[in-house]
Amino acid sequence: MNFTNETLNIDELPKYQEVPLQPLHPDYWKVMLISRIIFFVILGIVTGIVLFFNDEIREFWGYFMVILLVLFGISVVLGKLGFKKKGYAFRKHDVLYKSGIISETTTIIPFSRIQHVAMHEGVFARMFGLASIGIFTAGGGDSDIEIPGIEKEKALQIKQLLMSKLSEEPENPIVDHDGESEL
Amino acid sequence: MTEKANFNQPQRQSLIGVLVMFTDTFQKIIRAMWPLLVVWLFKFNQMNKLYLGLGLLVVIALVGIIAYLQYLNFTFYIDEESDEFIISKGVLNKTKIAIQLHKIQQVNINQTLVQKIIGVHALDVDTAGSNKKEVSIRAISHNLAVALKTKLLSEAKKEQLNNQSTEIPLTDKEEPFIKISFVSLLKIGVTSNYVRSFGVLMAFFITIYENVKQILQSADAGDAANAVDEKIDSYLNFDMAVYSAFLFILVLFVLILIVNLVRTIIRYFDFKMAKQNHSLLLSYGLLNTKNTIIKPEKVQIVALSQNWLQKKMDVLNIKIKQASGNETDKENKKSALEIPGCNAVEKDEILKLLFSQIPQQGAKLQPNWRYLLFPVLFYVVIPVSVLLLYVFNSEEATLNYLVFLPFYLAFVAIMLYFSYRHYRLFVNEQYIIRQSGAWDIDREIIEPHKIQSVKVSQLFWHKRANIGSITIATAGGSLSFRLGNFDRVKELANLWLYQVETTEKNWM
User: Fold this and answer.
1) Which of B20, B70, B163, B349 has the most CB atoms less than 10 A away?
2) In what order do the strands lie in the sheet with B453-459?
3) In a domain, B5, yes or no
4) For the YdbS-like PH domain, which residue ranges apply (chain B) (predicted)?
5) CA A77, CA B139: separation in Å to the nearest integer?
6) What is the domain range of residue B379?
């Protein structure tokens, strides 16, 4: 058994926080915008119907308009900020995804822990030729990553890359509890 | 001893198992209808006994027929050609379940009270990638159960060459290496789960109170009900309040003790652990006997829990969370195995078996004082301000209740102080140990190579303070440490990633 145990210098370990992140495709912002507009149009129609059938509050229609517009504005601004914060990176051994405005969260999944990879194309994303990549582990929903806004070609490449990494990793390294191994 | 059973032909369960199915269905009906039954019970005298009796007979006959049909339609066999375990069942909706043998993770032989009385066993098959026991044969003789288990697992092993441990089912000859004594169970019973039992009891009393009120109201609607209502409410005038509150707490406390004690004993009576190759075999239960296997390589999180009283009495609880597909946290809690009431020596032995050594605590990381802000807001600021608002807006009599406020504040302050002081993360090269809890101190142990993903997060207003949180996910649930020094947190993330990415060990 050739076992060595040098002291690990933590400072010399690769730092995830210094990895340059790849931003999402600029067109993805348009996708976000479209889905927001549609949401608010529906909300506006619903409000309109309510106002149409309810005489008592109809005279306040101006307020409703203003509230809706302000909410739309906030949602757009937050969306833009969130869009700018999102980013991903692939290192040799793991994948990073960063997101969040209020809580800035970086999730890192080592390739050897990936259970499966999924590609998803939304209706609007497809119009811009974009797709999202879902990366799943055995750790359950909380530990999974979904990277949106990747060009479809690139998404396919990424999927291929992850798949090849998956098969590259020894599927079940035979490690016994005592560390003995046999093939 | 064991007869050479042939499982290649579809076969039924033991005929006597109809009884089990009968009680199962009957239980389901009662469970679904219990609120109605309680009401009926109160109105028992007003009802027509003849109809009631006839109705009961009809229900019993119906359930009996259903149980018999269930028995007739339930068959199981092993298909050697496709290597599948096949079960057909269902009365109206026929279901056929085929489980590939190599996907079988575990086969458990259990016994409920009814099964114990009529002398049959249940056989549950656990598969990977599903969150509930997919298949359960409800009534099967012990010999047949053992034979089927051996067969299923040996077939499973053939395909799973990478899994070395050869499975031999638990027979009575196994020498248990740990037996939890009745005294330990007593100790654990009286010292654990205060919070949970308190909640259950409170819910119970509130439901009873509401129900009684409702029934009384519906029984003789109108003045009488109001009178009772007033009566109950007027009991709560202030002079009585202090006295009755203490009495109430005392009674509640005694009840909690009894409930805990009874539950622990019923659940874990005669707790035995046996070693087998590298696995642990557990069997326990007074009314329902359960058998399970723990494989160390499947263990993801080991949680030790001990409070001050338990420390004095030298008992503690161990919870073992194993890998089990894509489950939500809640379900994982359910599937966690508990070893109640072992002493320090037994704990060390179990840990040695699971980790092949006793995990040591490494370098300490403690939370920032801001860790306290949220609990203070949640347990102090919000409830107290709501209370004050309410008190000052209502009549003066309620002012007196403010007497209780200092007690509450003192209690919360002590709990928060200890929860802050106990909240620690210990990290060395082999183990991650998170300690938490105010009264019950939990220590959760994870080996770095079991990590599935690492998540680092920071609220934007914590950037200045340089603090942040880290969550590591394993296949048996996640563990997070909140508001530690952010430099240290990032360092840990890098260290654990390095460890996961360089390790030879598999997470399962």
Assistant:
1) B20
2) A22-23, A87-90, A94-99, A103-110, B453-459, B467-474, B477-485
3) no
4) 72-149, 269-351, 420-494
5) 62
6) 369-419
- CATH number of the structural domain spanning residue B89: 2.30.29.30
Residues of A in contact with B493 (CB under 8 A): 16, 108
CB contact under 8 A, B501 and A93: yes
Residue A14 sits at the chain B interface (C-beta within 8 Å): yes
Query: What is d(CA A139, CA B409) in angstroms, rounded to the nearest whole number?
Result: 39
- Looking at chain B, which residue has its C-alpha nearest residue A171? B506
Residues B147 and B29 in one domain: yes
- Going residue by residue through chain B, which has 508 residues, state the pLDDT in tens, using 9 for 90 and above: 344 567 788 888 888 888 888 888 888 888 887 877 877 777 777 777 788 888 888 988 888 888 888 888 888 888 888 888 888 888 887 778 877 777 777 788 888 888 888 888 888 887 655 444 467 888 888 888 888 888 877 766 654 444 434 444 444 445 677 888 888 888 888 887 776 667 766 777 776 666 666 666 665 554 544 555 555 555 455 566 667 667 777 887 788 888 888 888 888 888 888 887 677 888 888 888 888 878 888 889 999 999 888 899 899 999 998 876 444 444 444 468 888 888 898 899 889 888 888 999 989 999 999 999 999 999 999 988 988 888 777 766 666 677 778 888 998 999 999 999 999 999 988 999 999 998 899 999 999 999 999 999 999 999 999 999 999 999 888 999 999 999 999 999 999 999 999 988 888 7
Best of A19, A91, A177, A182 to substitute, by most chain B Cβ atoms within 10 angstroms, is A177
* Residues B193 and B59 grouped into a single domain: no
Q: Report pLDDT for B158.
A: 57
Contacts of A51 (CB under 8 A, 6+ apart): A57, A58, A61, A64
Would you list the DSSP string of B425-458? EEE-SS-EEEEE-SSSEEEEEE-GGG--EEEEEE
Number of domains forming the structure of chain B: 4
Residues B271 and B157 both lie in one domain? no
- Nearest CB to A113: which of B278, B452, B471? B452
Contact A105 B456 (CB under 8 A): yes
Whole-complex ipTM: 0.85
| Nearest neighbour of B473 by CB, restricted to A139, A175, A181 | A139
Q: How many CB pairs under 8 A join A and B?
A: 127
Give the span between the Cα atoms of B418 and B441, in whole angstroms. Answer: 10
A173 CB neighbours in chain B (<8 A) are 504-506
- Which of A175, A178, A182, A183 to mutate to probe the B interface, most B CBs <10 Å? A175
Residue B7 covered by a domain:
no
DSSP one-letter string for chain A? -----PPP-GGGSPPGGGSPPEEPPHHHHHHHHHHHHHHHHHHHHHHHHHHHH-HHHHTTHHHHHHHHHHHHHHHHHHHHHHHHH-EEEE-SSEEEEEE-SSEEEEEEEEGGGEEEEEEE--HHHHHTTEEEEEEEETT-GGG-EEEEEEEHHHHHHHHHHHHHHHHHS-SS----TTS----
Return the pLDDT at B387.
Answer: 83
A contacts of B363 (beta carbons < 8 Å): none
Which residue of A lies nearest to B296 if distances are taken between CA atoms?
Answer: A177
